[in-house]
Write a structure and sequence with these properties.
67% of the residues lie in helices and 0% in strands. By secondary structure, it is an all-alpha fold.
Amino acid sequence: MYREQLEKYCGRKGYSKSGVGLSAGYNKNYVSDIISGKITPTAEALEALAEALNVPLAVLLFGDETDEVTREIVAKMRDIDEHGQRAVNAFLDSLASQKKT
């Protein structure tokens, strides 16, 4: 989901993928590498990319139709420890590997 959302919001807002990556503090190929599936971003990276795109992180992770509970859960991701971050990253990998039906 986040790959499609990144691509959609870069286009919708008229931002280049390289510009969003650089604005978020990463290299110019970072967003393209995420979208193509070459790399899986960390939760922190997705948060920085969402900020660069000026969209809620929940929208990148779960799409445009997010409810209050989903937004609350995503907001709490900032407060989890390193072990929890690894679990979140594994979850993101799992989401990314699922095929759209």
